[in-house]
Amino acid sequence: MTYCVGILVREGLVMIADTRTNAGLDNIATYRKLHVFEKPGDRVISLATAGNLAVTQAVISILQEGIRSEEDGKVETIWTQPSMFRAAQFVGRAIREVFRIDGPALEQSAASFDVTMLLGGQVAGGRLRLFMVYRAGNFIEATEDTPYLQIGEHKYGKPILDRAIKFDTILEDALKIGLISMDSTMRSNLGVGMPIDLITVRRNAVAHDLLHRVEPGEPYFHDLRERWSAALRQAHQNIPRPPYVG
Amino acid sequence: MTYCVGILVREGLVMIADTRTNAGLDNIATYRKLHVFEKPGDRVISLATAGNLAVTQAVISILQEGIRSEEDGKVETIWTQPSMFRAAQFVGRAIREVFRIDGPALEQSAASFDVTMLLGGQVAGGRLRLFMVYRAGNFIEATEDTPYLQIGEHKYGKPILDRAIKFDTILEDALKIGLISMDSTMRSNLGVGMPIDLITVRRNAVAHDLLHRVEPGEPYFHDLRERWSAALRQAHQNIPRPPYVG
User: Fold this and answer.
1) Which SUPFAM superfamilies does this chain map to (chains A, B) (predicted)?
2) N or C: which end of chain A has fewer CB within 10 A?
3) A3-237 belongs to CATH 3.90.1150.10
4) Which residues of B touch A208 (CB under 8 A)?
């Protein structure tokens, strides 16, 4: 499993991803799922991936090595995309290219062609945007009404996002709430695990603000987990008992 | 969808079920999913059902009308079972009987034979117990280590159970925490909805303690929802912001 969340607020973008991959319970490993393509001042593009690791790694390779354009025969890469919208289309094309090569054989061997990605960032001259790209290569975008997107094991970590994230939430709080959402997911699904990679990008900076890996045992994250657990326990204690009588 | 939770603590048993059924988004109806078979002093057995409504209704009918015993030819019903363990086996047999009749045709028409049940209660002379019965008719039992079982849309409502329910939790608190778990699920999945049916049974009473339907707009449940939402928002505000710097 995997859990990645992207949050786009007025001040900027947060993306957080776990690193656990597993092929069954007895083959657990750590792989980076948060990838950053950055030339400060020109573009900062972050991609979080969920699904079959062979597929997501192949997509990352294609994004960098490029695809020959059908229009003018030139090789396009993630570095040549003129906007975030075009970058999202390009990620979709890369997924379709991997599907063309590997999809039929994968599905014949009862492995699924299973991939979803979050793509966030800004290209100079354009807006800071956040997309979710599906396995068919199509995509949706985060909006002011729903300023976050999730991929992977998304249910455990959704209630806190639903209740606490607004477009006007400040960037540090969005990061904190994203980490709580990740903690709730790790607590309930062993397929999601440490370390955690995160990036923040301030709107119109066209460069990352923070690029950090939360390692197991890090004091701040440990404290966040403890406080959140204690707060949940406390929260229900402050609610009166049911008045129902038999 | 459906959400039902059963909690077995030292003091007794709580079972809670929503009532929404849907065949697609445009065919929504209310059906009771929490069924009670009770003769005070002899037995109190509560059954919560998830899955295909035709299947669960057929199972309920069989539990009452009975199956002819393979051993002695007598008709057995839920009322003749001498223990909760035998009652759980009997529910499993009823599910297999419905599968024998309807399963192949259901699966040919691309509808799934999909059913899970929670069975809780006490038969005089035996212990108060709580089981989850699977579609294959086999079952597991709640224990002191994991004193709750869920069926249906279980992920949204699991974090609060994980953190707050212990075997020593008192019965009223178990009910309250169960209602919070139901609220979290309804907040995130429109397929789970009001009214909510609930039963509590005190250990060795061999009769229900509380049998109640929470209707939309009920003041206590409304207050619980508001307080829980406010507490979650407050909880993250009391956690310090991340100290990470770029």
Assistant:
1) N-terminal nucleophile aminohydrolases (Ntn hydrolases)
2) C
3) no
4) 246
